[in-house]
Design a protein that fits this description.
alpha/beta, Rossmann fold, 3-stranded antiparallel β-sheet, 10 helices, binds zinc ion
């Protein structure tokens, strides 16, 4: 998606934010944030947040110490670009299209809460825009706690708004979004409800018990981690949103040898594993891996 590639990233970010003014609120005092000529967002009480030259805004009050997750997000980008997530992304896009097409969602606003390096949102945004009917003027906003993730997103995808922020205290005004996405990321249902419009929907993707089962078997054989269930997460969702759909997305992915290492870097399963187990995975000759997600679709309860 290279449009206006000569323009500075900060200028296209400014233009997007101006076009959608009233979206952000100050994380300190909750007043509306406006954009000033000096490339910063400000509220009426004088709190200021600069736009980064890479084209994102940082609305996090306490900065996280980064560094480690840069590798993780780079690995996720490689895996994502290999098509690993495409059936899952396609399922989300299809669902949004089905729900939104009758409701005049040409200018629908989508928030990806916990967007990481932004590739899921960018893919879905582009897929929806490419559909023949509707979604011609949709807005995509990606938020993540990780500055490294957001920097990568802003660098790669200029036509969306990217923001470093805390999901438990979203710096967004009430009732701004038609769709909130929450893909393989922790949730804050209270905040999701607050920023959704009354007709809004939440789509959550969570790992299903068979997700990466081949890795799980090597890493956790004979321990209580070998089996994984997501019932608790589903119950929490259904307590907060009216559950409309619970859909399984299961498929096998053929793995190129070099992608196995990226996959190992990407998944939290391996983060505390000993080198011996990691080596066992690398030398396992694994050619294909099980991908299994559950997709939950919820409506805001009255
Ligand atoms: Zn303020």
């Amino acid at each position: 998606m290279a449009s206006g590639n000569e323009r500075k990233k900060i200028d296209s970010a400014k233009e997007l934010i101006l076009k959608n003014s009233g979206l952000f609120r100050c994380p300190v005092c909750e007043q509306e944030l406006g954009l000033s000529r000096s490339n910063s967002l400000h509220c009426s009480r004088g709190h200021n947040y600069d736009l980064a030259k890479q084209g994102y805004v940082n609305l996090l009050l306490k900065q996280e110490k980064g560094g480690y997750d840069k590798q993780l997000f780079a690995a996720r980008k490689v895996i994502g670009d290999s098509g690993f997530f495409d059936p899952m992304r396609k399922a989300i896009s299809k669902l949004i299209w089905e729900v939104g097409k009758g409701e005049e969602w040409a200018a629908a606003r989508i928030l990806d809460a916990g967007c990481g390096e932004g590739s899921h949102l960018a893919w879905i945004w582009q897929d929806l825009k490419a559909k023949k009917k509707g979604f011609t003027d949709i807005l995509g906003v990606g938020i993540d706690l990780s500055k490294e993730g957001i920097r990568l997103a802003a660098k790669e995808y200029q036509e969306l708004i990217w923001c470093v922020a805390d999901l438990t205290k979203l710096p967004l005004q009430d009732r701004q979004f038609d769709i909130v996405l929450n893909i393989l990321s922790p949730a804050n249902y209270g905040e999701f409800k607050r920023v959704l419009k009354d007709h809004g929907i939440l789509i959550k993707i969570l790992p299903a018990p068979n997700y990466l089962i081949e890795l799980r078997e090597i890493l956790f054989k004979g321990t209580d981690k070998e089996l994984y269930e997501n019932d608790g997460v589903k119950r929490l969702f259904a307590n907060s949103f009216q559950l409309i759909k619970d859909q399984q997305i299961h498929y096998q992915v053929f793995l190129k040898e070099e992608n196995l290492e990226h996959l190992i870097k990407m998944t939290p399963l391996t983060w505390n594993a000993d080198q011996e187990k990691i080596a066992a995975i690398i030398h396992s000759g694994l050619k294909s891996i099980t991908v299994a997600f559950d997709l939950l679709l919820g409506k805001k309860m009255a």
